[in-house]
Amino acid sequence: MNVIELNHITKSFGKNVAVNDLSLDVPEGSIYGFIGPNGSGKTTTIRMIMNIFYPDSGIIKVFNGEQAGNLLDRVGYLPEERGLYKKMKVKELISFYGELKHVSNPSREADYWLEKFDLSNWAKKKVETLSKGMSQKVQFIITIINKPEIIILDEPFSGLDPVNAEIIKEVILDLRAKGSTIVFSTHDMSVAEKMCDFISMIYKGKKVLDGTLESIQKQFGQDTIRIQMEGGVSMLNGIAGIEKINDFGQIQELRMIPGTDSQQILSDIISKTRVTKFEIASPSLNDIFIRIARPEKNGGYE
Amino acid sequence: MNKSFVIAKREYRAAVRTKAFLISLLLLPVFMGGGLIVLTLFKDKIDLSDKKVVVLDYSGLMGEHIIKTAENWNKNNIYDDKKEQISPLYFIEIVHPDTVNPLQQKLDLSNRIRNKEIHAFLQIGVDVVHPHFGEEQSRIFYFAENSAVDNVREWLSNVINNKIREMRVVEFGVDPKKINDLFYWVGTESMGLLKVDSKTGKVIDAKEVNETQAILIPYFLIFLMFMMLMMSAVPLLSSVMEEKSERVAEVLLGSVTPWQFMMGKIIGGLGVSLTTSTIYVLGAVITLRKMGMSDVIPYDVLPWFFAYMLLNIIMVGSIMAALGASCNDSKDAQAIQFPAMLPIILPLFFMMPVIMDPLGKLATGLSLFPLWTPMIMLLRQSTSVTIPIWQPIVGLIGVVLFTFFCVWAGARIFRSAIIFQGKRPKIGTLIRYIIKG
């Protein structure tokens, strides 16, 4: 069963078409990742799901019925831009949002989450005294305080250090395990790869990818070679059949020209240097993202 | 609890818990009645220093009379029963007018005034008893540093004019003994209306209505309503703008609808206004009762005051919240604030014409314009005049309908504009928001 369904959604701001005929389904209990470059329409799509923006055309269904704006107590929303009442005390603020979301004992819930996020000592401090990371954690608590059935997170990990990002990731996974559906947008492809059951990429307002990681990678075939060799990237000069080289220093990722024999490439490289690792693989999500978002710059080094 | 009320509770607490609220609670009466209080306190605090006046009497008829009157004044009118001085002593010096070089003489006297030797000098024309219109010799001139607002000028004017009238009357052959009777002025006292006591059925005699009372009560109520608008409805513009620019609005919209958000803010402001106005109204009622002036308290108008204030704050508050949602930063808000406040300020300019003629066409017309009904109709109702009962009822219905429209239109603008960043929408865009939602 899908908890969110978008059918042919279009939204324009003046002459700029932000979202163009977008359709997607978010299955219940899944972690659904929105990826796409800046300005691709991810936030606009999320805002339309939240009923903050109305689509110009198309239908949005949440829980197979109304839009999320009418079901706010069942949906948690973390906007991309963080905004909290600076003069309120931390616990008071969390309790306020708990009360707004009809949490039965907002104060107790606030204590629980503050403890979980290691913010108990800041409960009576004003929000304006918090660091950026702490504010983000507080805002995340506000989003999930009512344990919503759908949690929509716009860039939840941006600006967080690895420790705090890990804590939030654990809570997200825990909520999913308890039945929540998670929808989040991210620029971090490794997070999307590791966490998402389904991934949808929006580019220039249009959906360009949709499905599981495996199904997406299948679309691109096994056209990628990951290679480790003595002499590094310089050994690849003059090797035929390579469309693009992605140099990570210790390891290089090569995209083959369609129809090229990978064994021929391996043979050509071995003739020049000693190869310590050679793997034929599907392209990473990051590579797929770049292929789509920067098609004009494909080719050559990255 | 309804989400709007949760937001309202936060808004109310955020406003009431601040020091600024307590300070404004204390300062508001000072702003409201400051001028009146100062006027009352200092109205008897007149300058009691001796006043020496030089008289250039071209007529030769007034000088002696002024001296004698001043002497009588100094004997009888300087001290009150408690032997405290209440008026200055007047000393008159008669100087023969210089007909050869009058300007030089007046310049010398002016310099004496500048040197604080004398307070003023007076020039009485030769034809003052039987004046010819416009001629200088038919007029009286008073020269002083602050001659336009000088009690001595008024005193001298009375003294001289009384003497002129006496002289004219005597010339007509009237017995000088009857002059006092002739000029005795009988004032007309202003009275309210008689009414029947609803409990006893007895007729209650009318009470005297003074000018201060007739103006002060309407003034107090209107100014209080205006201040409540300024305290709770107008700040919504900057408050919503701040929440938008600091991105709090979008976080809130994850939990509430734009309608609940806007109404929560308005209800919060309404709570602050009701608290403040109740404190002031109760304070005023208790004070007046303790002063034995309970008959001047307009109990019948007070429910109207609160009803109009409530509607006015919702009406103006929704307009301000909508405009605040259309602003992106404080510059936008500042640019829009004054034009937005103008419709609220304008009724204050009509206060005096309405108080002077509460049943006139101007007062009636203005009071039926919904945006101004709360202030102008209340102003009319709080005067001692009885206005036709249909007018407040029609006015109230108009305000209720207009308030609904403002909330509806405001919510549509609020909803459309609260997330948008970038250039502030023009009026045409705002109208489009209202129409399309």
Radius of gyration of chain A: 23 Å
Class based on secondary structure composition and strand pairing of chain A? alpha/beta
Shape category of chain B: elongated
The CATH topology of the largest domain in chain A is given as Rossmann fold
What does this structure look like?
The complex is a heterodimer of chains A (302) and B (437). Chain A is an alpha/beta fold and 302 residues long. Chain A has two domains: 2-211, 3-Layer(aba) Sandwich (Rossmann fold), CATH 3.40.50; 221-301, Alpha-Beta Plaits, CATH 3.30.70. Helices cover 30% and strands 29% of the residues of chain A. Chain A has nine helices and 14 strands. In chain A, the strands form three sheets. A six-stranded mixed β-sheet of chain A has the order 5-6-7-3-8-9, sandwiched between helices. A five-stranded mixed β-sheet of chain A has the order 13-10-12-11-14, covered by helices on one side. In chain A, strands 2-1-4 form a three-stranded antiparallel β-sheet, with helices on one face. In chain A, α2 crosses α3 (106-116) and α2 packs parallel to α4. Chain A is globular, with a radius of gyration of 23 Å. Chain A starts with a strand and ends with a strand. The model of chain A is unreliable at 297-302 (pLDDT under 50). By secondary structure, chain B is an alpha/beta fold. Chain B folds into two domains: 3-32 and 211-436, no CATH class; 51-181, D-Maltodextrin-Binding Protein, domain 2, CATH 3.40.190. Helix content of chain B is 62%, strand content 6%. Chain B is built from 17 helices and six strands. Chain B has helices at 3-16, 19-42, 63-76, 102-114, 151-171, 179-182, 211-233, 235-245, 248-253, 258-290, 302-326, 330-349, 351-356, 361-367, 373-382, 390-417, 427-436; strands at 51-57, 90-95, 120-124, 140-144, 195-196, 203-204. Chain B has a four-stranded mixed β-sheet, with helices on both faces. Chain B has a two-stranded antiparallel ribbon with strand order 5-6. In chain B, α3 (63-76) links the parallel β1 (51-57) and β2 (90-95). In chain B, α11 (302-326) runs antiparallel to α15 (373-382) and α16 (390-417) packs across α17. The longest helix of chain B has 33 residues, at 258-290. Chain B is elongated and about 90 Å long. At the A-B interface, β5, α2 and α4 of A face α1 and α9 of B.
